[in-house]
Design brief:
It is built from 14 helices and 19 strands. The strands form four sheets. Strands 3, 4, 5, 6, 7 and 8 form a six-stranded antiparallel beta sheet that branches. The protein has a six-stranded mixed beta sheet with strand order 10-11-12-15-16-19, sandwiched between helices. Strands 1, 13, 14, 17 and 18 form a five-stranded antiparallel beta sheet that branches. It starts with 37 loop residues before the first helix and ends in a 7-residue tail after the last helix.
């Protein structure tokens, strides 16, 4: 479960990871526009399909086999003579996105990645999607901050966002997470899909104006995009703050525990455990604290059992991580294409799967052993007051699993926006990487498909994320003021309605 924390998600590939197959019958990719023989691209696409069909346990989680086969066939037909590695990359992502797993990504070969980043062809300004509108997210550009982009190089913005969405993989049919990811990586996604641009012709609507304006701005290098993003206007509400913290709001008899990530190393996990223990001991010594806000809006995931440990301090009854979990193999298939990022990784994975999963398959599925999915008891120091959970589009993976457990509690009040990660389950945990032999594109996905141990809620359809009781979104006005609308609404609700009624 990999958190999304940095600009440039899905971009990094080390030359040290190149397969021994490199140089045996493959073209040496010397440029982004170099045509690759059609039969080699088709062979790579067919290898990609075999990998997904034999190793991806979540391939048919949200779509039928008939529909998945159809999308494979439709995208294969679009690989035509004269196509490049980027053309294949787009077709792979069209399939990857359709299968619906935020843990599935594809990576360009290192040389192509470097060549792209060396171009002076990228959109120069940070942007942010708010309620479907693409807004300029900087005070240092040609356009005023908050300007709404209506068209880019003659293409309506709604069409642009529709095309870029395939690179922003989310669970199931989720859309809120796509808006978050496109906002984070707009310049990169645009270059992938539309090709290099020396200038960008923009049609936009400036704040407070009713008439549209036009301008032309020069492209920049990718490094300039990264610098501009690091100084984006919305940074005060998004900056890298401590992984977790406690805030006491005595005037409202309320505490707020913010956990921004579950991605912690061994030392950090020890500190995290001590933080939770001391925090909830303190809250138990403070009976005047009647409400607890748990904020996981920036939590894009991390490691087990950090998510379950936090929930143990909130749970009202015994719980477990999942109702069922399985993989579709025990011995790693297609080893010729498997990428070992550490020595012996494939054998270690096979050993782990044999240890943790039953030996006999049921309908081609190797289920997780019962002992590997223990029931947790509520911590003796659990919080017993009113619980409020804050969620958002960035909440994913272990973050959304935690949010799902809280959402399943009929007493908890949930505020914010739908999470990127699924409510009922996801395909996660162990990840594997394969490399396609001709283009050297790397394909990465998780292999454990699981249903989380949550209640069926009639207002949350299958394939969607965690839904809030109160949907509170960022607005253009709050963006311009850098104002936290979700927290403001939450504190006002606690102040005016101490019983915190659910909707």
């Amino acid at each position: 479960m990999i958190p999304v924390l940095a600009y440039g998600r899905k971009l990094v590939l080390s030359m040290a990871l190149l397969s021994p197959l490199w140089g045996i019958g493959q073209p040496t990719l010397i440029s982004v526009t170099q045509p690759i023989p059609q039969h080699q691209l088709l062979a790579d696409f067919d290898t990609f399909r075999r990998i997904y069909q034999t190793a991806n346990s979540g391939l048919y989680r949200y779509r039928s086999k008939k529909n998945i086969d159809s999308v494979f066939a439709a995208n294969r037909k679009q690989i035509r003579p004269g196509a490049t590695v980027l053309d294949l990359y787009q077709r792979l992502y069209a399939v990857t996105d359709y299968t619906g797993s935020l843990h599935s990504d594809n990576y360009l070969p290192a040389r192509i990645d470097s060549l792209l980043k060396s171009e002076v062809s990228f959109f120069p300004h940070p942007v942010k999607i708010i309620d479907g509108a693409l807004l300029i997210n900087t005070t240092h550009g040609t356009l005023p901050v908050g300007s709404r982009l209506l068209a880019i190089n003659g293409q309506h913005v709604s069409d642009v966002l529709g095309r870029l969405g395939k690179y922003a993989t989310t669970d199931g049919y989720n859309k809120t997470g796509k808006s978050f990811l496109i906002s984070q990586h707009f310049a990169w996604y645009y270059r992938l899909d539309y090709g290099p641009c020396s200038t960008y012709d923009l049609t936009y609507l400036a704040p407070g104006r009713t008439d549209t304006s036009r301008c032309r701005i020069p492209a920049v290098a990718y490094s300039n995009c990264q610098k501009a993003f690091a100084q984006r206007y919305s940074l005060p509400l998004e900056k890298d703050l401590p992984a977790y913290e406690l805030t006491l709001i005595d005037s409202l008899a309320t505490a707020c525990v913010t956990v921004r990530t579950f991605d912690l190393d061994h030392k950090q996990e020890k500190e995290y455990r001590r933080f939770l223990d001391s925090t909830f001991r303190l809250l138990n010594r403070r009976p005047d604290i009647r409400s607890l806000i748990v904020d996981v809006r920036q939590n894009s995931g991390g490691n087990d059992p950090n998510d379950l440990l936090l929930y143990s301090y909130l749970a009202r009854q015994r719980f477990r991580e999942n109702k069922r979990a399985y993989t579709i193999f025990r011995n790693v298939p297609l080893p010729a294409y498997f990428v070992e990022e550490t020595a012996g990784e494939r054998q270690e994975l096979a050993d782990e799967l044999r240890t943790e999963h039953y030996a006999r398959a049921r309908q081609g599925k190797y289920y997780l052993r019962t002992k590997e999915n223990p029931r947790w008891l509520p911590n003796p120091n659990r919080f017993r007051g009113k619980l409020v959970l804050l969620i958002g589009p960035q909440t994913a993976s272990a973050g959304s699993l935690f949010a799902s457990l809280v959402r399943s509690d009929p007493e908890a009040v949930v505020i914010g926006e739908e999470t990127m990660g699924g409510y009922y389950g996801h395909t996660g945990h162990e990840s594997v990487a394969y490399r396609l032999p001709y283009t050297q594109i790397r394909v990465k996905f998780s292999i454990i498909d699981l249903d989380q141990d949550v209640r069926v809620l009639p207002f949350i359809p299958r394939g969607r994320g965690v839904f809030p009781d109160y949907t509170i979104k960022e607005t253009k006005e709050s963006f311009l003021r850098n104002h936290d609308t979700v927290l403001d609404f939450t504190l006002q609700l606690i102040k005016t309605a101490p019983g915190l009624p659910k909707r």
